[in-house]
Amino acid sequence: MNSCMVGLSGRRSKVYSLSLGQKLVRLRVMESGLDYHTARALLEWQIELGATDAIVDTPIDRYALPDKAAKAKKAVVAEPPKKPEQIDAAAVAQRAAKASGSLPELRASLEAYDLCELKRGARQLVFADGTPGARVMIIGEAPGRDEDREGKPFVGRAGQLLDRMLAAIDLDRTQNVYITNVLPWRPPQNRDPKPEEIGMMKPFLERHVALAKPDVLVVMGNISCQAVLGKRGITRLRGRWDQALDLPVIPMFHPAYLLRQPQMKRQAWADLLELKARLEAGA
Question: Which residues, other chains included, contact 185 with Cβ-Cβ below 8 Å and sequence gap of 6+?
Fold first, then answer.
């Protein structure tokens, strides 16, 4: 807005200092009986008309003043802030897993890994249970409520059923079975793991298998099949031997599924017998 200069001239004049808001304004008026209140009313009226400056005692070179428009334009074209560098969570996991030379070191690497959002909502890490170096390694899907609370895979009702299934073919997690999960942290509300979560944790799982050195792998449930074999459809895949991570792999129903679908226990028994035959044949 252009400044509107307003002034009153006269040989004999008087200066009023008026406070309007946060501004102190000086008004020079003639000594013609104009009182303070009349002068204030005149000034307020002039401000309403758009007056922004009063004539001062010394001239002002407005061309020498800073160009506010140029400053505003310069601020607009300033360089945008740099975006934070994107971190490849899977690559970080790959390096951490590769650097782990033992199962305790791998567990420590998982404890220190902070790029998986599941860790923030879980009570604790669920690493493994059973006997390291056992011939049979079972890979489940993800911890549930009981596993999250106790810090071990396959506990609660599903774990009890698994123990009975293993005992039927002379296997026991305390002697000749090693157990872990695809994910070490519980997903919220026991939801299925997301593909990016599986991909992030896969380097740790592969290193886990390499350090445990089993003879055969048992993958229980669709999520385990997807992570290890790259396939889904447990009803079609179960009981059929496959190959992954340089080991023979047999898919089976998850014990939690068998608790919901007890009629499928016959097929699960057939799969257990297939596993037993493979072990007796020397894997």
Answer: 116, 118, 119, 121, 122, 125, 126, 142, 143, 148
The ranges assigned to domains in the chain are: 5-59, 89-280
pLDDT in tens, 238-253: 999 999 999 999 999 9
103-112 and 195-212 helices, crossing angle to 10°? 160
pTM: 0.71
Mean pLDDT across 225-245: 96
Three-class secondary structure of residue 212 per DSSP: helix
**What is the DSSP pairing of strand 242-244 with strand 177-181?**
unpaired
Q: Which CATH superfamily is domain 89-280 in?
A: Uracil-DNA glycosylase-like domain (3.40.470.10)
Per-residue pLDDT at 50:
74
Specify whether the CB–CB gap between 155 and 256 falls below 8 A.
no
In whole angstroms, what is the distance from residue 219 CA to residue 241 CA? Answer: 11
Q: What is the DSSP letter of 172?
A: -
- The C-alpha atoms of residue 177 and residue 262 are separated, in whole angstroms, by 24
